[in-house]
Design brief:
Structural class: alpha/beta
CATH topology of one domain: Transcription Regulator spoIIAA
Shape: globular
CATH architecture of one domain: 2-Layer Sandwich
Bound molecules: iron/sulfur cluster, FE3-S4 cluster
Number of strands: 20
Distance between the termini: 45 Å
Strand order of the largest sheet: 2-1-3-4-5
Number of helices: 13
């Protein structure tokens, strides 16, 4: 009987990409996925440390595996950012865990469980991060972060920035194209600070994008996640406007609309420079849309600072936003700051922001009904398997009523309605992919 595994992934896209790589490695070694954790020989938990709630969830899961381990044999592996941050604690508090594997070791998990581990001091990029979805793939191009924003644990758990060899990236993109992948998302904690020295010359993020767009067919969409607003050069802005492979949608984390808070957060830009960046991107590409991340209730945030965030949200007009409130993380600078706010204030502001952003984005979404958009068909609707769900290049979800289409194909649709956050799309030539 082959060995079986159960993999649980928490946190960001980078973790999901790395989990894909682990699964590919396991497959090569003949280790196959189990239908349920109860049936697995090996359980892998790929964890996140970004918030306390994320870690609490893992502690809960470890209780579950401890219980299982009392009943039967199972190997439990904890990897990812929480494993990096709390390795000693985990070894002491969670005897269910057989291996604690840090972020730089994660790529060598198979070697570790096969009992011939080597010490890897640096992050190694693994080839082929093909995801479960056949038409889409996540592709890490850099790892780590040098920014040390005052609230963020990522630089401590991921380490300093390391960029991947561009030749390797292009080779992997060629492979993904051969596998008929239609959408590739380049990943990195600070993706646009990508920088790699090749034959004595620095390859920057725009250089890399130029190489990528020159090497892919017209029918491949390229996205990147997450760029830092302070690292957008004019060259990058112009490229986004000029290259049709680059999706007309940028996730641009703002975090706050107040200069005082942005400075305390050590974000490295002002509200004015952020708004100028949005205008420059719109000037380069009139169809461009934005999404963002916003953190409310940072220590010292006043009502006026919060109102400045609402005002910025109003000015930019995001299609979508990930909104959360400040939750101190041990080891970060913000933990030691004065002016921590009461939970009620943080929650009240968060709710106000959510209500405002939702109402704003609903208006924007409604105003976009009637246009024609290209949609990448991703999967069949669970509610109605006759219908397909896809996404536009603006990352909008569209439900298409055309049973003749197949997943992985592009189709041009007229956006004819909106239910919740899902658009309805009518195919221009029913049954025919574009
Ligand atoms: Fe964290 Fe700031 Fe780095 Fe983003 S840029 S990963 S928020 S430290
Ligand atoms: Fe979480 Fe680590 Fe990603 S802390 S958000 S899994 S980089």
């Amino acid at each position: 009987m082959p060995l079986t595994y159960w993999l649980e992934t928490y946190g960001c896209q980078m973790n999901f990409a790395e989990s894909n790589a682990i699964e590919l490695d396991f497959a090569k070694a003949g280790i196959i996925p189990a239908a349920a954790p109860e049936e697995a020989d090996i359980a892998v938990l790929n964890t996140c440390s970004v918030r306390q709630t994320a870690e609490n969830r893992i502690w809960g899961r470890l209780g579950f595996y401890q219980h299982m381990k009392n009943e039967r044999k199972i190997t439990v592996i904890l990897t990812g950012c929480m494993a990096e941050r709390l390795a000693d604690d985990i070894k002491k508090r969670a005897p269910a865990v057989d291996y604690v594997v840090g972020t730089n070791e994660k790529q060598h998990l198979l070697e570790i469980i096969q009992n011939h581990p080597e010490v890897h001091e640096e992050y190694d990029f693994m080839t082929s991060y093909k995801g479960k979805h056949p038409s889409k793939s996540l592709l890490p191009i850099m790892n780590g972060c040098n920014n040390f924003c005052a609230y963020c644990i990522v630089p401590y758990v991921r380490g300093p920035e390391v960029s991947r060899n561009p030749d390797e990236i292009i080779a992997e993109i060629d492979e993904l194209q051969r596998m008929d992948v239609k959408e590739i998302t380049l990943l990195g904690q600070n993706v646009n600070s990508y920088s790699y020295e090749l034959s004595g010359k620095i390859v920057t993020f725009p250089d890399l994008l130029k190489r990528i767009t020159a090497s892919v067919s017209e029918q491949v969409w390229i996205r990147f996640l997450s760029p830092h607003p302070k690292d957008f050069s004019q060259e990058l802005i112009s490229l986004i406007g000029a290259e049709s492979n680059l999706c007309s949608h940028v996730h641009l984390p703002v975090q706050s609309g107040s200069n005082t808070v942005l400075q305390a957060m050590k974000r490295g830009y002002t509200r004015e420079s952020y708004l100028n960046l949005v205008s420059s991107l719109r000037a380069a590409d009139s169809a461009i849309t934005f999404s963002t991340d916003i953190l409310v209730g940072f220590p010292g945030e006043t009502e006026k600072d919060f109102e400045a965030t609402i005002d910025l949200v109003d000015r930019v007009g995001y299609l979508d936003a990930y909104m959360y409130y400040f939750n101190p993380r041990e080891g970060t600078e913000a933990m030691q700051m004065d002016g921590h706010l009461a939970d009620e204030i943080k929650l009240m502001r968060l709710q106000k922001l959510i209500d405002f952003q939702r109402a704003k984005s609903l208006k924007i979404k409604q105003s976009r009904i009637g246009r024609t958009e290209r949609v990448l068909c991703e999967n069949y609707s669970r509610k109605d398997p006759e219908k397909l769900l896809g996404r536009t290049e603006h990352d909008e979800i569209v439900l298409i009523d055309d049973a003749n289409l197949t997943t992985g194909s592009f189709v041009d649709v007229t956006i004819s309605g909106l239910t919740g956050t899902t658009y309805k799309g009518e195919t221009l030539c029913p049954g025919k992919p574009s």
